[in-house]
Design a protein that fits this description.
By secondary structure, the chain is an all-alpha fold. The chain is built from eight helices and no strands.
Length: 194
């Protein structure tokens, strides 16, 4: 048994339950809208008027919604991209150096997090240098502490400064702070020796 189709739009007609059980007329139209439009078209044809058929056209459009990334997704994205990570670290270094890094909330928390980061970064750098067969550069603050705890190293630094002063290497503008520190050191030792 073939499924009846609407004579106007050619859609399948759902059978009504009473017609299936042998009572009532079977449906001729797929919907009340098709029945009404067919009736109007028939009347227009009887009067000799050309019927104009208006049909709605439904077009589905896929809409792409851009949602802001979550903090966790942004972190993962930066950590997975070497260039983005390098840019982040350079920007942070520059802002700290220039004094423009201002944590939004408690500045103590941000500094605490940076301090917690230094030990794992030092360990990571040591691993990188050991796998590459190179020696990691010493942290300047650590180097100063090492020199100051060794009388021999202190003497070597002072003798090196003396050689630089004799050769005129300390006369440049970049060593102005060094010369000021030397003047203070000499003045302090003279006062203590009296």
């Amino acid at each position: 048994m073939t499924t009846p189709r609407c004579p106007r739009c050619d859609r399948e007609i759902e059978s009504n339950t009473s017609a299936v059980h042998g009572r009532g007329r079977p449906r001729k139209w797929c919907s009340d809208e098709c029945r009404k439009l067919a009736s109007e078209e028939r009347r227009a044809a009887e009067r000799g008027i050309v019927a104009v058929e208006l049909r709605e056209r439904v077009v589905e459009v896929e809409k792409v919604v851009h949602r802001p990334a979550t903090t966790a997704a942004s972190i993962d994205r930066v950590l997975d991209d070497d260039q983005a990570l390098q840019k982040l670290l350079n920007t942070l270094r520059h802002r700290i150096k220039e004094g423009t890094y201002r944590p939004n909330r408690d500045p103590g928390t941000a500094m605490w997090m940076l301090q917690r980061l230094t030990a794992p970064v030092a360990d990571l750098l040591a691993q990188i240098h050991s796998s590459a067969g190179t020696t990691p550069p010493m942290d300047p603050a650590q180097a100063v502490r090492t020199v100051l705890h060794s009388p021999r190293s202190c003497r070597a630094v002072l003798e090196g400064l003396e050689r630089m002063a004799r050769s005129g290497e300390l006369d440049g503008g970049q060593h102005t702070a060094t010369l000021i520190a030397l003047d203070r050191l000499v003045a302090r030792t003279r006062r203590q020796s009296r």
